[in-house]
Amino acid sequence: MGARVTLQDDDSAAYTLAFGFPFFDQTKTSVFLNSDGNLTFDEEDKASTDRSVSRVLSGPPRVAPFFSDLDPSAGSGRVFVQSAADAFTVTWCGVRGFDKTQTVTAQTTLLPDGRIDVRFGSSVDLTDAVVGLSPGHTGRFDPVDLSGSPAPATTNAAVGERFAEGRDLDLVAVSRRFYASHPDLYDQLVIWTDTRLTDNDTFAFETTVANEIRGIGLDVFDQANAFGSAGRLRSVVMMDTLGKYPSDPRARVLGENSTLSVLGQEAGHRWLAFLKFRDVNRQASDALLGRDLAHWSFFMDSDASVMEGNDIEDLGGANFRTVGAVSRYSLLDQYAMGLVPASQVPDFFYVESPVNVQPPREQDDDPQTGVTFSGTRRVVSIDDVIDVMGPREPSSGSSPRVHRQAFLYILSSGRSLDRSQADKVDGIRRAWETFFSRAVDGRARVETRLQPPS
After folding, report:
1. Spatial distance between the Cα atoms of 52 and 2, rounded to a whole number of angstroms
2. Could you tell me which of 222, 445, 262, 208 has the C-alpha nearest to residue 339?
3. Rg value, the chain, Cα
4. I need a labelling partner for 54 at 20 to 30 A (CA). Which of 66, 120, 163, 372 fits?
5. Summary mean pLDDT of the chain
6. Angle at Cα 21 formed by Cα 18 and Cα 24, nearest 5°?
């Protein structure tokens, strides 16, 4: 089986091949073994983002026998490598899914003539994975039925199949279908569906497609082509089933949130919330961040940002109370969005080491008004943020003030359009334009009218 390799969750290890391996018209002499059930060439891939067809397309050249969120450090799972002059073999043996007890045993072998042998154990308990090959950084994907028809004999496109236990929506396919008939004029696609497709822990989510902005905590990258955009698209928002949102988009639907503030948060993930800062000990800190390190901490005075945190009132004597939530983009938010310069961002604070929290709340929790607690007030300036993140580039003077979105409503196969549902989406769309303008204090607007199909 080979030598055991110690891999952690979201980890990679580099190897030199004992032979030149032909792969999509190139010869590879080294390979990265990634913990998530795949091999990549040219660069490692140990990101924690969605293990999707999109990532297979847009990432490095890849052999994916079972591309899924795996954790070789959990349970009794092991990873083995056997490298020889006539074969390079990797075995993921009884490796658990992240935070799961279900496992997978899969093996892939690279051969000197370019063949790839993939085998699976007798029982595979994990159900969600992408199996396939990709030349890397491509927008072409040929789906194949791996249990039926064979893969094409020759192709320059990525090939493979996605397996899932439940229903799902292929955001790449939806986006490419949209751009087949509409111009490339949109910064963001906002998707609604007629049936629930997110899991129980996810209400809505955003997938960043491309980012050119420095100083906000996002890597600079561009996957727009994989989604069918020639370069304009930056993000896709999945709002999920329209049925779980109330008829009034201003009514509460999720804790303190309304439909509009949920949309505000998901649209806002294009820029937010990833900012770190230099703390009182002059160390880089993520104490401003809460859930998934992509939302503001419950104990940050975020001025009731839609990106979470709370509007926190200082009661004096190291006592505090939350008095507002999810109603606007703060000036700190607007700095990251490119709407105000650093000079217009006032000092703000978070509460360190909160105690006597009533009702009990944690740093990762959703916003809630009326919560009281005690702790140490820590003031943060925008200079403390820039000291760690670097200045935002481009600056607010060079950033756009119009954010174009396309609202899409996806029907399940065999269903016809219900006019009332289309009207509901349109009502949300129109209310959202007003909400956004107010949330950024009139400094920008969203344009959601569709241009005529090409």
Report:
1. 29
2. 445
3. 24
4. 120
5. 92
6. 165
Every domain of the chain and the residues it spans: 3-163, 168-454
CA dist., res. 95 & res. 90, Å (int): 13
Of 157-161, 162-166, 408-412, where does the model show the most confidence?
408-412
Q: Which amino acid is at 92?
A: W
Question: For residue 413, what pLDDT is reported?
Answer: 81
Task: Quote the pLDDT of residue 139.
Answer: 66
User: Taking CA 197 as the corner, what is the angle to CA 196 and CA 203, rounded to the nearest 5 degrees?
Assistant: 75
Question: Would you state the torsion angle of the CA atoms of residues 101, 52, 80, 165, taken in this order, to the nearest 10 degrees?
Answer: 30
Distance of alpha carbon 382 from alpha carbon 329, whole angstroms = 16
The identity of residue 95, as a single letter, is V
| Amino acid 221: pLDDT | 84
Q: Indicate yes or no: pTM above 0.70.
A: yes
The CA distance from 68 to 46, in Å, is 11
In the predicted structure, residue 153 carries a pLDDT above the cut 60: no
Contact predicate 113/121, CB 8 Å:
no
